[in-house]
Amino acid sequence: MKMKLFSSKTSPFVRKVRVTLLELGLEGLVEEVFTDWSADEPAFLAANPLGQVPALITDKGDALPGSDLIIEYLQTRGGTLTSLPRGSARWAKLKRLNLADGLTEAAVSVLLESRRPASEQSPAWITRKQAAIARSLDALEQEASELLPEVPSVVEIAVACALGYLDFRFGTFDWRQGRPALAAWYAVFAERPSMVNTAPMA
Ligand SMILES: N[C@@H](CCC(=O)N[C@@H](CS)C(=O)NCC(=O)O)C(=O)O
Fold this sequence. Notes:
Elements: E1 3-7, H1 12-24, E2 30-34, H2 42-47, E3 55-57, E4 63-65, H3 67-74, H4 88-115, H5 123-142, H6 154-169, H7 180-189, H8 193-196
Parallel strand pairs: 1-2
Antiparallel strand pairs: 1-3, 3-4
Helix pairs in contact: 1-3, 1-6, 4-5, 4-6, 5-7
Bound molecules: glutathione.
Glutathione is lined by residues 11-13, 37, 51-54, 66-68, 101, 105, 108.
């Protein structure tokens, strides 16, 4: 029986899982179930009480919510990503992972806020989240030379999916401006088959 991935066509967090599956060569083990997270479907909420995609049901029936947990689990099933180092270098890597996930969350938040009726939107909230995104990108630019060009770790997958989401949803925001190292790294990474084959579907 295949594992079941509650997914959506455009979620950057689901894309992290899709990229990982392709990098690990495990895509055949998983069946995607496209899910409208706003519909509060019982099987989906049972898999992730937070009501967010992605959530994975393993072939043993265990429910794993959230992209980072799912990716950690998938790495136990076969294939190889570059593993994170032990010791002090680990924390710098995990910091970049958290920055990438956080800026993705901020970008999703801006999108959802901007889709609310104009009278209910908070421009201050949007400005705050946009500033967080810009600061996080600046921090990643400072450390872009640490991003791997070849077999990625979970860090590179998260950073690439964050940047891809900005291109997809915020095409008028030129995140490359003033961030040449990050832009150069992404230009190469975005050519990986795992990225090309997981471009957002909308
Ligand atoms: N920390 C989670 C974030 C997942 C997330 O924010 N998913 C969004 C779609 S991109 C979602 O399902 N949002 C619905 C909600 O928050 O109610 C992860 O890494 O998977």
